[in-house]
Amino acid sequence: MADPRGFITTDRQTPTRRPVDIRIRDWREVYEAQPWEALQHQAGRCMDCGIPFCHQGCPLGNLIPEWNDLMWRGDKAEAIDRLHATNNFPEFTGRLCPAPCETACVVGISGDPVTIKQVELRTIEEAWGSGAVVPLPPDRLTGKTVAVIGSGPAGLAVAQQLTRAGHTVAVFERADRVGGLLRYGIPEFKMEKSVLDRRLAQMTAEGTRFRTSVEAGVDITGQQLRSRYDAVVLAVGATTARDLSIPGRDAKGIYQAMEYLPWGNRQGLGELEGDSPINVAGKHVVIIGGGDTGADCLGTALRQGAASITQLEIMPRPTDERPSAQPWPTYPMIYRTSSAHEEGGERLFAVNTAEFLSEGGELTGLRISDVELVNGKFEEVPHTDRIIPADFVFLAMGFIGPEKSELIPQLEVELDDRGNIKRGHDYSTNVPGVFVCGDAGRGQSLIVWAIAEGRAAAAGVDHFLTGRTLLPTPIPPTARPLAI
After folding, report:
1. pTM for this one?
2. CA 448, CA 428: separation in Å to the nearest integer?
3. What topology is assigned to 254-395 in CATH?
């Protein structure tokens, strides 16, 4: 146990965010550095419970009490070893994971949970800063080759695990740079891309090969992949966005969030010679969808200088406290304020969009109304119909599965009734030698699940190629953590 009285004597404290009026002028991450002593005190709040429910809350099974204790004691070298034992990319999860481990923290039963996510992030950042994160190439090569399709968190995790196991791994990415949604879907103010690039440099030094601007199914067919590689792993994500088919949908100015965010990221990274093709400077913006993707659109639009931003959510406003129907240690649906929400914009809950309005094909506004949930269905509240102005609308309503690209029928893999790629207990598909992990098989989920599935799928692939594996035993593809 770290500080035996830490959870009693020390209040929860998270890093301070940079002032809003300063941070919206740039694209850098929003948090200021936390003093080392303050971080140690936060790690010291961990009770090292007899039954650490944070383990069940974390899909990766992170050894949270162990590295909390080590960081409190200042043993940074051992702490990063324990953290890397279960998580290939703690610098990603430390910034982007919603931290289901914290909602399962025993300290949180009667108080504020341990700042597990921040201790994790500081552990890996201290390791990078000290040079403790180095390439770990395999001692020998197996002579087996693997193609990984997609370079998001699931694809990178499976690639790193298999490379370290001695296989020759090539990662195919259709974009011009590696990273999938980590590169162009996650805004710079949530994770600067230098964080991604330094990990990719480590993977390259270990032997992983990256092939960018190659669209599997088009530039290289499924048949070619199977003939050239001993195994193929599909980590293509669930990028088919949910649409809103209502009157006026064809008006100019309506985009899916993932049509908008990549351009905003390129703008933030300075990769554009001029303005972004979708630039909302001085315009009225409406975001439909109240989740993280909607918040990413909000923060991006603020930095582009939008005149007004309204975020719509059809569900009622969550409560501030944990609902009685979602007791500890489950993940509660409570009212959360992200850094982007803190920066500006208006949030409207329990509203439905009935029509997009336009003039001459150009979007001018939305017709909305209040709704209430009655017997499981949304019903319009009488006399609440109204119009809000909009020059741009971004649809951030989630994703419904992997894209139905040419690759799927070429490989002849089966889909389930939700449109995801079917897989067995070892993440294998119905086609021998073809595996799937992450959102492509699971459906839209969390980054921590993507990494966990990538690690687990790597064990399945390794066993297929060699008849045995020393990699971590795969978690069942249908498993759910206690906190979700």
Report:
1. 0.95
2. 20
3. FAD/NAD(P)-binding domain (3.50.50)
